[in-house]
C-alpha cells in the first residue's frame, strides 16, 4: 500500500482549474489503486512556520554542529516535522496556478521549508550537492491563464514549471511528469480543462 500526497496551492477552490484537474487525477488514481492512501495538503489552510531569524540561526547551528537554544531547537523541529510529512509519501501530486509567471508564495514558502541540508539534500566537496528524496514519482499540474509552452513565443516567461522541475530535481526527484492546463483565460477554457483531464487520467492510471 502506497501513500499519495497531493500538495494543493490554489486558493480558488471550486473555481480553480488546477484543483479541478487534480481532482480528476485523484479519482482516476484511486480507481486503479483502491488500497492506497490519499492525502490532500492544502497550503492555504496549513500553518507553516515563518523562516525568520530564529529559524535561520537554528539552520546554521545544525549545519555547523553547534549547540542550539531551546527556541532554535523548537524552530528546527517544526521544519523537520514538515519535511518528514513530505517524505512519508511514496508519490507526490502537485497542483498549482501560475502567479506573475512563477508560483504562489504559499508554495514557495513550503518549498523553502522543505529544501534543507541533511533533510532533503546533502553537500560534500567531493560529491557536491546530492538529493536525498529518491525513488518517488512526482506529477505536477500547472494551470496558467496564458499559453507558455514550447513554440508559443512566450515560453521564456515560464518560471513556473521551470522552477518546479529544477527544485524538485535538486532534492532528488528524477521522475517528474507534467500536465499543463493552458490557456485558462480564453474562450476555449472548457476544452483546455477537458484535454488536461485526459492527460491527467493517463498519467494517474499508471502512477
Query: With helices defined by DSSP (H or I, 4 residues minimum), what is the helix count?
Result: 6
Beta-strand percentage range: 15-25%
Q: Can you list the strand order of the major beta sheet? A: 2-1-3-6-7
Order of helices and strands: EHEHHEHEEEHEH
Question: Percent helix among the residues?
Answer: 25-40%
What is the gyration radius calculated from CA atoms?
Answer: 18 Å
User: What is the top-level CATH class?
Assistant: Alpha Beta
Question: How many runs of DSSP E, i.e. beta strands?
Answer: 7
Explain the overall architecture.
This protein is α/β, with parallel strands linked by helices and 207 residues long. It has one domain: Rossmann fold (3-Layer(aba) Sandwich). It is 39% helix and 20% strand. It is built from six helices and seven strands. It has helices at 17-32, 53-63, 70-87, 105-114, 161-170, 189-204; strands spanning 3-8, 37-42, 91-97, 121-124, 128-131, 137-143, 175-181. The strands form two sheets. The chain has a five-stranded parallel sheet, sandwiched between helices. Strands 4-5 form a two-stranded antiparallel sheet. Strand 1, helix 1 (17-32) and strand 2 (37-42) form a beta-alpha-beta unit. Helix 1 (17-32) packs parallel to helix 6 (189-204). The protein is globular, with a radius of gyration of 18 Å. The model has no long low-confidence stretch (mean pLDDT 95).
Amino acid at each position: 500500500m502506497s501513500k499519495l500526497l497531493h500538495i494543493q496551492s490554489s486558493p480558488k477552490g471550486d473555481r480553480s482549474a488546477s484543483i479541478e484537474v487534480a481532482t480528476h487525477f485523484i479519482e482516476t488514481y484511486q480507481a486503479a489503486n483502491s488500497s492506497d492512501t490519499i492525502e490532500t495538503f492544502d497550503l492555504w489552510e496549513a500553518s507553516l512556520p515563518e523562516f525568520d531569524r530564529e529559524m535561520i540561526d537554528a539552520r546554521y547551528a545544525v549545519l555547523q554542529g553547534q549547540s542550539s537554544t531551546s527556541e532554535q531547537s523548537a524552530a528546527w523541529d517544526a521544519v523537520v516535522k514538515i519535511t518528514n510529512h513530505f517524505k512519508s509519501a511514496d508519490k507526490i501530486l502537485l497542483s498549482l496556478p501560475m502567479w506573475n509567471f512563477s508560483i504562489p508564495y504559499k508554495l514557495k514558502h513550503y518549498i523553502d521549508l522543505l529544501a534543507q541540508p541533511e533533510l532533503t539534500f546533502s553537500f560534500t566537496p567531493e560529491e557536491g550537492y546530492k538529493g536525498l528524496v529518491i525513488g518517488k514519482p512526482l506529477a505536477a499540474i500547472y494551470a496558467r491563464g496564458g499559453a507558455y509552452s514550447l513554440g508559443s513565443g512566450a515560453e521564456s516567461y515560464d518560471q513556473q514549471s521551470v522552477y518546479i522541475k529544477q527544485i524538485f530535481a535538486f532534492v532528488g526527484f528524477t521522475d517528474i511528469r507534467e500536465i499543463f492546463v493552458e490557456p485558462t483565460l480564453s474562450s476555449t477554457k472548457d476544452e483546455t480543462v477537458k484535454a488536461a483531464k485526459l492527460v491527467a487520467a493517463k498519467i494517474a492510471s499508471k502512477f
